[in-house]
Structure formats: structure tokens, C-alpha cells
């Protein structure tokens, strides 16, 4: 069985944000013994990844690290007309990825205790973001 | 239903290349209401990722960025006998990833307006590349 | 058909390790004509990726590269109370990813000749790691 849902996230500020609960509130996994949940972001300047759901400074450090490893205003950027945050946003999106796939077991996401789903919002004013969740069971 | 197809890409020069149309020309999504398309590259020195399909300078900037963040001839490389482009190619392949998974909705890839599939060709002379597309519906 | 198995890996030292055989020993792909194998790691400081299965110096160079591109003790890290290896481990985990998805064809993983599955153990003392393998066919 395959099901698909659209999710529209409200605007998040630039940085990394825990969206596990927001995703789970929009999809019913009850009754799924084993399966997979695929979450996809329909944008090229924001990303999805899985990391620690507890200490919020992990998310702060993600933003610091990726701002350093993917700098704004690198002298070799040619794609600059959408602002200094735009080309780094594309590079961060591909480094982190545009989808996550998570096992479902006994009606729940089978994440580790400390794992949550992160939205990486890489634009200064990215606005609302569209996700597609596809559930296989 | 699961279907699988082999795709053989012709040789691309080192850099990032939009291959969405080439993939879609080899697989028929008609009649698939909801599903997933999984695209896998059978090589360790080339990658697949999703990013902007419009301005070609995004792809140029990808090549510049990853050449800088994964340099050739780093003094600590031990795997050097296949040429200076080889070890960076392995590292870029794992940083970007060897597969993409994309939702299918109403017979089409449900990509965002500006999203396309990139081949990252990380070798100077990578030659022809083999992909496997698996479609679930 | 969907099947799911838990895999518990014994402790690996920090670095990159080939685990293809360990995964294959725990799941029976016989009789699967076409399908996908999804492998997920339930941790935020270890990763899964696909790369060269032959020369072990590729794995050594992976460790060297990611130690340089994701340094310990960066002055801007705030999440430091679990040790200097912890925050870099989180960043490496998201850069490389927490799952891989591999085509199955005629009862075998349809990997390229030189491809294997890597565990990226990013902690100094990560201990045993839990994986979930989900097989679709």
C-alpha cells in the first residue's frame, strides 16, 4: 500500500529546525506493522536531515558549521543575482539532501531515541516550504 | 508493483550535469497515481543529487565549491595511485550520495518547479556511467 | 512485500568500515527478482554511505578528510559537554547520511563492482550500533 500527503510548513528563520512532530501530525501510521516513510522537500535551497532531537545547541552548531564550510560571497561564485545567501543555500541543500527515508515499525517511526527530523532552512527569507510524505507498507 | 530499468549514460565531462530528461525518457510513469522513483548510480566516483534546473551557473558553482572543499593532492591522501582526481571523487560521491528518491504523483515526478536531477561526474575521464531506476507504485 | 530486520553491529573503532557482508549475512534476498533494500542507522553520531570496497586506504582517507573538514574544538561549537568528538560526529552523520537505499536484482544487491556499504563510526567510543534493514519486493 502506498499513500501520499502534502505538507506545507510555515516560514522558519534561517537555521536548523526540528519538524518531527509537525510531520507526524499530518500522517497516520496506526496499523502499519512494517513500512517506510519517505519525506521529500520540493525546494533547492532547503534540506532535510536526521540528527539529535534533544539539545538545541546541536542545531545552532549545525548552522555555524555549514556557514563556515559553505561560505557566502566566495570569489568563484557566478550564481549571485539572487543574493549572497542563495548559492550557499543550493550547496547546503545538496550536501545535506532533499529527502529522508525512515523505517516504520508497529505504527511508529522507528527512529533512535535521540533522532529527530531537521528542516535545514538555508535562505534568509525562505518562506513557506512544501514537503511530500510517501508512506509504503 | 515494482519495476526496474537499467540506464547507461554516455560520457560526461567532469562537473555537474542535468539528467532529468534522460532519466524520464527511459521510464514510463503513466498511470502511476502515487509512488516513488529510486535512482542509483553503480559507481564510487560519481554522484546523484537534486538541485536547480534553471541557471547553468549553479552547476558551475557546484564544481568550484566541491573542488575547493574536497581538494586534490591533500598531503594526507594515501589512495593516490589512480590519479589526483580519484580520491576527491570518492569523497565527493559520498558527500553528495549515490541515490535519489523522488515522489511520483499522477504519472509525473513530483519535483519542485526548480528541481532537477544532477549527475556529479567527479573524475576527469569517468566514461559511461550505469544507473538503475526502481519504480514503486 | 515488506520485511524488516534488526541488526546489531559490534563496536567498531572510530573511522570507516566495510559492513556489506555483515548486512547480507542477516537478510535473505533469495527469490527477490526486483526490489530495494533500505538500511537505516538509529544513531546521530554514526553514518552509512556507499563507496569503494577494495583498497582500504580509501577508508583511511575518508577519516582524514572528514576530520579536517569537520574539525574538533571549533571555537563556535556550543554543544561541547559530551567531548570534543561529539559535535563533529553529529555533523559528519548528517553530511554522509543515516541511510542507504540499494536496488535488489535477481536475489542480489545490485551494487557496482567496486561498491560496498560503509559504516562511518564518528565517535571515539561509539559502542555497538543498531541498524534496521527494510526490504521491499
Summarize this, please?
Chain A has 137 residues and is of the alpha+beta class. Helix content of chain A is 22%, strand content 37%. Chain A has a five-stranded antiparallel β-sheet with strand order 1-8-3-5-6, with no helix packed on it. A three-stranded antiparallel β-sheet of chain A has the order 2-7-4.
Report on the structure:
3 copies of one chain form a homotrimer. With 137 residues, chain A is an alpha+beta fold. Chain A is 22% helix and 37% strand. A 5-stranded antiparallel β-sheet of chain A has the order 1-8-3-5-6, with no helix packed on it. In chain A, a hairpin with a 2-residue loop joins strand 5 (99-105) and strand 6 (108-109). The longest helix of chain A has 14 residues, at 56-69. The first copy, chain A, is elongated and about 55 Å long. Chains A and B meet through strand 1, strand 3, helix 3 and strand 8 of A and strand 3, strand 4, helix 2 and strand 5 of B.
Oligomer: homotrimer
The helical percent of chain A reads: 10-25%
Strand content of chain A: 35-45%
What are the low-pLDDT stretches of chain A, counting only 5+ consecutive residues below 50? Answer: none
Using CB atoms under 8 Å apart, which protein chain pair has the greatest interface? Answer: A-B, 30 and 34 residues
- Tell me, rounded to a whole number, the average pLDDT of chain A: 98
Q: Output the helix-strand order of chain A.
A: EEHEEHHEEEE
How are the strands ordered across the major sheet of chain A?
1-8-3-5-6
Overall morphology of chain A: elongated
For the sheet with most strands of chain A, the description reads: 5 strands, antiparallel
Compute the CA-based radius of gyration of chain A. 16 Å
Q: Count of helices of chain A?
A: 3
How many beta-strand segments of chain A?
8
The rounded distance between the terminal residues' Cα atoms of chain A is: 5 Å
Structural class of chain A: alpha+beta
